[in-house]
Amino acid sequence: MALVTQSEIFPQLEEHLKKRGCFMVAGSDAPNFMTIVWATAGIIWGKPIMMVAVRLSRYTHDKMDALKEFTVCIPKDGTMAKELAFAGVKSGRDYDKAKELGLTYLPADKVSVPLLSDCAAAYECKVVYETEMHEAHLDAELRERYYKTGDYHTLYFGEILACHKFD
Amino acid sequence: MALVTQSEIFPQLEEHLKKRGCFMVAGSDAPNFMTIVWATAGIIWGKPIMMVAVRLSRYTHDKMDALKEFTVCIPKDGTMAKELAFAGVKSGRDYDKAKELGLTYLPADKVSVPLLSDCAAAYECKVVYETEMHEAHLDAELRERYYKTGDYHTLYFGEILACHKFD
Fold it and tell me: Do B10 and B72 form a contact (C-beta atoms < 8 A)?
């Protein structure tokens, strides 16, 4: 693994978010991962920051609240379609997803949450701010499309402590 | 001006945010711009999104609330140090900044807020969500550093309707 800047892997992040998604890992003793298709990256509070969104109902939400750390792992091009589909609909409450899918975890450098094996690149993040979304000031079309039943996202702002490209 | 993807100009955005900043323009009939050193970009709600932060006390906050549109303009490398410094500390309540600095506005393609002349690249955005920051869940060090007197930021999530590279 080589340390890189966030700009070096942003195009990969954006490309995969627009296609089948990336993996977000949370939890340390019993890690879990979900598929994400939303994230933003840049600079806030003078720090490199990645923002991810997790619905209140999600198992990952519990894991985030417990540890306030996460990693985002970007698949290699054209790979892991099955894994992304599985992690997008199955809950870590019901499955040990890594075991089900034959994936392994790799230790991260700066956080206790691991990285997911077989990926192309990854971000390690520590939550420095979070805010629960609400319907006020939300575009009506987005509300109708994503929040008909409520279950709003919590927006987690993670300081990016390291970015990697895998070998 | 050439239309480009957000990934093509993200490295320029990140680089300038880390140095002297970029310009954020708000308002249509009487536009104003401020210097920003914070922003994130990516995908949320299935849309390309740029998030910017504006303190409640700012003149730009009034302009954003009135129109819900903004542009972010990235300077050419090594230029506009004076303009970025001026726009970072002077208020549009007291100055017509473009006039003071001899800059002109260019019409944008998708929003009624203009772009700023003499820049290298720009984003055009329409606000689809906003949320006021608050001290709950904010890292203590950041609270101490940026919000001693309150005056929290409103986080504006703008759908990126166009990205440009200037000729």
Answer: no
Tell me whether residues A134 and B138 touch, CB distance under 8 A.
Answer: no
Q: How many residues does chain B have?
A: 167
Burial level of A80, CB count in 10 A (0-12/13-18/19+)?
Answer: buried
Half-sphere exposure of A122 (CA within 13 A, CB side): 27
Whether the CA torsion A75, A92, B40, A117 is positive or negative: it is: negative
Digitized pLDDT (tens) for each residue of chain B, 167 residues in all: 789 999 999 999 999 999 999 999 999 999 999 999 999 999 999 999 999 999 999 999 999 999 999 999 999 999 999 999 999 999 999 999 999 999 999 999 999 999 999 999 999 999 999 999 999 999 999 999 999 999 999 999 999 999 999 97
Q: Which helix (H) or strand (E) holds B162?
A: strand B153-165
Q: Which chain B residues are within 8 Å of A128, Cβ to Cβ? A: 138-139, 142
Contact call for B40 and A42, based on CB within 8 A? yes
**DSSP string across A22-89:** EEEEE-SSS-EEEEE--EEEEEETTEEEEEEEEETTSHHHHHHHHH-EEEEEEEPTT--HHHHHHHHH
- For A40, the closest of B17, B49, B128 (CB atoms) is B49
List of chain A residues whose C-beta atoms are within 8 Å of the C-beta of residue B46:
37-38
Tell me B114's DSSP state.
Answer: P
Place of tokens 């401020």: B34
What is this model's ipTM? 0.96
Distance in angstroms (rounded) separating the CA atoms of residues A164 and A124: 9
- Mark yes or no for CB contact A131/B131 under 8 Å: yes
Write the residue in A11, A46, A129 that is nearest to B139 by C-beta. Answer: A129
Global pTM reads 0.97
- Calpha distance A30→A63 (Å, rounded): 9
